Amino acid sequence: MVSVVLPILNERANLAPLLAEVAAVLRAVPHETIAVDDGSTDGSLEELQRLRAEYRELRIVPLVTTSGQSAALSAGFGVARGDIVVTLDADGQNDPRDITALLAALETDATLTAAVGYRTRRVDSAWKRLQSRIANAVRNWITRDGMRDTGCSLKAIRRESLDRIPRFDGMHRFLPALIQAGGGQVREFPVTHRPRYSGVSKYGMWDRALRGLPDAFAVRWYRRRALRYAIKEEVC
Question: Cα(201)–Cα(123) distance, rounded to whole angstroms?
């Protein structure tokens, strides 16, 4: 079973087309779609409740107040029932059709813990692409995770690995590094990048930089100090 976790903040107009795409892509796969409403004020929660009648696989997790993307993902991870958890943004820039390739990678390689996307032919402005290149280069230099585009939200992760990672504000920016710290194997795959269905991005360069830099050093520390062990045989 696959659990698709969608963190949502004021994406009302994007929800119906996104859920339709996800349902079409996964129609032959047992799955659930977990929509975590992060205290939206634009009627996103009401729209999800309306769409619930159309999509039986849809589960709604409403947060009391806006708590951030990491908190929304953590809440979704906490209720996920699937063996594999897929994350993607609710703005439509991730193409749900790419989920199939990530799931196939996990199915064919039992040693792989997570299959994560990196965006090709990005439709963002040149300024935003430059910001992303700088941020990824700095993060990679600090954390040594080897990922070229950790900002891509489309990821497929074996659920048991998510139970072992630390949860903190900003966690979503470092999921590959945190999975690696626990001994997991992560591989990147090219995915499509599209314009938003509607609306505007909720993030800017400076708020991400100011919060992300100290987090990156903390993740570097965690990667060096994380416990790694396996029990050789069953305890009697």
Answer: 13
